[in-house]
Structure formats: C-alpha cells, structure tokens
Amino acid sequence: MANILIYAEHLNGQVTDASFELIALARQLADSTGASVEAAIIGTGAGSLAYQLGGADTILVGESNELGEFNPQGHAAVFTDLITDRKPAITLVPYTSIGMDIASVAAATTDLPLVSYCLGVNADDGLSATCQLYGGKVEVDVQVDGDRAIFAMLSGCASADDGRSGGAGSEESIDVSVPELGIEFLYLTEPETGDIDIAAEEVLVAIGRGIESEDNIEEAQELADAIGAPLAASRPIIDQGWLPKDRQVGKSGLTVKPKIYLTLGISGAPEHLEGMRDSAIIIAINSDPQAPIFGVAHYGWVGDLFDFMPELTDRLEG
Length: 318
Ligand SMILES: Cc1cc2nc3c(=O)[nH]c(=O)nc-3n(C[C@H](O)[C@H](O)[C@H](O)COP(=O)(O)OP(=O)(O)OC[C@H]3O[C@@H](n4cnc5c(N)ncnc54)[C@H](O)[C@@H]3O)c2cc1C
Prior knowledge:
Elements: E1 4-7, E2 10-11, E3 14-15, H1 17-33, E4 37-43, H2 46-49, E5 58-63, H3 72-86, E6 90-94, H4 97-110, E7 114-122, E8 128-133, E9 138-143, E10 149-153, H5 160-164, E11 170-173, E12 203-207, H6 217-227, E13 231-233, H7 235-239, E14 260-264, H8 270-273, E15 281-286, E16 299-302, H9 305-317
Parallel strand pairs: 1-4, 1-6, 4-5, 5-11, 6-10, 7-10, 12-13, 12-14, 14-15, 15-16
Antiparallel strand pairs: 2-3, 7-8, 8-9
Helix pairs in contact: 3-4, 6-9
The structure holds flavin-adenine dinucleotide.
Flavin-adenine dinucleotide (FAD) binds near residues 249 and 272.
C-alpha cells in the first residue's frame, strides 16, 4: 500500500495531542497494511519539534518563519503539494479549526474525497471510515469511492500517548516556498481567563442546555459549591450569556482535563467532547439514555438533573 501522510499540528510551541493521535492511528493502519507513515510539520518551530514525531517513519520538516505557527494559505499550499508529490493513499488531518482549513483546501485542489467527523479508518477492504453525524447521535460507515482519500479525524480517534512513544523516524526537509502569500501570521490570541481558570481545576461541574433557563443555574451553583468546584458549561449556555466565555468547554472554548468532570444536561456533541474527553473521570447526568455523552462517561445516571442536583447537594451538605 502507498504511504500514509499526516498533518502534524502545533500551537504555542507544542505539538498538539491531536497530532499524536494521528500518528498512533497511522501506525495501527501501517501495521495491518505494510504502508509507511510520513508526518509533515510546517512553520515556525517545525525543525525543533520534529523529533517528537518519531513514531512516523519519515518526518517531513518545513521550517519557515514566514508561515508562522499557522497560516491557512501557506500551510495548506505546502501540505497540498506534499499530497500531490507523494500520492499517499491515506491522508490524515485532525478535525480541528486548523485541520479543517488545511483539509478543505487540500481536497479541493487535489480532487481527493474528504471524509470528515471520522472516529476510525479501515483499509482492509478498500478505504472506509466510521463517522459521526448529527452531533454524534448517529455513527455511519463511509466507503470511499477510489483508492485515495483525506480523513479528518475527531479527537480521541486513537491514544495520544501511543503516538508519542518510541520510534526514530528520519527527518527530511521540504520546500516551503509559497508564491504570492497573502496572509501573515501575527500572533495567537487565546481566550481571556477571568477569575477562574477552568483548565487548571481538578473538579468541574459542567452544565448544558438541559438546565433550561438562567434561573436554574443557581441550583447548579449550589451543587458546585457543595462539591467545591467551579461551574463550566457547553456552548449554548455561553451563547445565551448565562455564564462568561471563559467557562466554555470545547472546540471553540477551552480544553480541560480535570480529575472529575460532572456533566448536567450536556448531550456530548463532538465539539464539546473535544474539550473534555481526556478528563480522568467523566460522570454524566442526562435524561436521554441515547445521549452520546454516555459513550465517553465512566459513570452515568439516566434521569432528571432537577432531581439529581438537590439530592446530591443535600447529601454533601448534610
Ligand atoms: C464550529 C462549532 C464549534 C462549537 N464549539 C463548541 C464548544 O466549544 N463547546 C460546546 O459545548 N459546543 C460547541 N459547539 C456546539 C455543539 O455542536 C453543540 O450544539 C453543543 O455542545 C450542545 O450543547 P448541549 O449539550 O448543552 O445541548 P444539547 O445538545 O441541546 O443537549 C442538551 C442535553 O440535555 C439533556 N436534558 C434535557 N433536559 C434534561 C433534564 N431535565 N435532565 C437531564 N438531562 C436533560 C438532553 O437529553 C440533551 O442530551 C460548536 C459547534 C460548532 C458548529
């Protein structure tokens, strides 16, 4: 089988967990198909970070200050050239804001199919992927028409630790010249942190749309106080203005890894899971037994959060 090519994302001088997950996934695929794994890292700091991608057989290093840590036009152009030149059967990008900027341009330019929201890829009988639909409520198997494709992988598709470990891939410099670069990377703006940094907390109580109204947040706050944890939330709560932006967990919010993450009325959409699935213990309270949050929860209770909250608060305070 032809090669597997990975786009290795890096931010703030760190290779992201999503990139290590892709290496782990590619290694699994390579073991079953005999393919070799190539990981491309592009932009400022690529040269000094490349050694971390040793789980790949070849690390394609595109050091470039001009492209900054990320530049949608520049990174997409360089990565697309790699796909054109090296003709990988499987191209893996993380399903992140950066990854989708790259994947959509690469697919449109190379005319390869782009399969998004992927949980896993299979190369045993042609190329196929298991994908999430409808915010994670449905999983489907997608068969690729043809023998090459780009897959945008959801967070958690493989173990980041497996992708981090071992390997001694060889490094190869790649061409990073992009004619008529019209975008310049200036600096990364991170969400402002207020009085509480939920990313640094060991226990979080996270509320979702199941809380129904702003008036009910007080009851959730009482439970959080009894536990000794701050409130975090899914995006709809923030969009309503019921809690500040620095409490949002997920794709367009913060990534948290507390020891305990208690969710109240959160469905578990992929964009939310992206920000909390690496929590040590996830406890989900949801009235819908089919809610996707139960797919990642270590403990769960199917029921009404308005029964659960006062009961637990009373027990903790009593
Ligand atoms: C580009 C993009 C970025 C996004 N970024 C984020 C992000 O950073 N973070 C994020 O969270 N979302 C994000 N989203 C939104 C995401 O897709 C979901 O819409 C959102 O996570 C859903 O929030 P929720 O689970 O609170 O609400 P819902 O999906 O509406 O789920 C509410 C849940 O509450 C349960 N429920 C209702 N009543 C009760 C009750 N009385 N007791 C118990 N359970 C009850 C229901 O069964 C349901 O499962 C993003 C979306 C996009 C497109």
